Input
Amino acid sequence: MAIAKAERLMNLALCLLGTRRPLSKRELRESIEAYVEAFGPGGGAPLGPDQAATGSDDAFNRMFERDKDDLRELGLVIETVESLDGEIGYLARRDSNRLPPITLDAEEAAALGLAAKVWQQARLAGAASGALQKLRAAGLPEDVDPYEAHSALEPRIPVHEAAFEPLMLACRDRRPVVFDYRKATAARPEARHVEPWALECWRGHWYLAGFDRDRGAERVFRLSRITGKVRSRAGRFTAPVPDVVTVRETVASWAGETADRSALIRLRAGAGYPLRAKATSVRELGDGWDELEIPYGHGLDAWLVEFGPDVVVLEPAELRADVVDRLRAVAKG
Output
């Protein structure tokens, strides 16, 4: 149905852009195949003041008005013109709907070209490739390589989770979804009914921010913990979507990025480089172990569990207990 509507809107836009004179509803109804298939060719002459529209006419009028509003929301400038005999017509003048030429200097074109090359997976790969071709047409020379200054780097955004694509489309279309989600402390997944807002990648992992209907509050979900398929649900959002969705800030606070305390851990030598990068002090213990002091904030226990047997929490006691609880939950699951 979405494809049929997109095709109908495209045909209506082409009719309005291709005409040199205003076209009436009757003419548009007879010219666009989707309208003819759904409602028939129409009654021919415009209705007089004493004539009533049929049910088919009413349905067509409602669809046409919705289509016209959708095109205007997409940015098409549609003019409404009244003829000498009082009939209303519509057209979209090309000069009113022509974008100004795009001019990019070498640095701007290279930056946009680099951004386009980042996406190389899922259905975004085709869109990124097409965007890069348009950028070259707009000013990025063929002999300019966006990686020229950093040829050893190959930036990529990994998209391994099967939930990414359906959630990306659900965020775009504002569609509620339901999926099974396993928390780090839970042995089994549970169903979550979510109104998805935004996706964001943080430290190599994808996160979804949205409104959790069951809990009546905003929640952030890590895509790697979604099990099974993401199923769409009918209906509209029940909660307003924030103007700015701070996915990264929320996850960062959960991961201890805003820590105001310190934790002491024992880390196996040659392992846990992300922890070493955060450490405020490192001391060799011998026997293949080091002692690290790291910032401690909400969510640090979940992060430490990911390093498995390479990490032992020494203090504080509550952090050690939280890590043990999470490991036990994983062992049960």
Summary: Residues 44-53 have pLDDT under 50 and may be disordered. The chain has eleven helices and twelve strands. The CA atoms of residues 76 and 230 lie 34 Å apart. The longest strand covers residues 190-202.
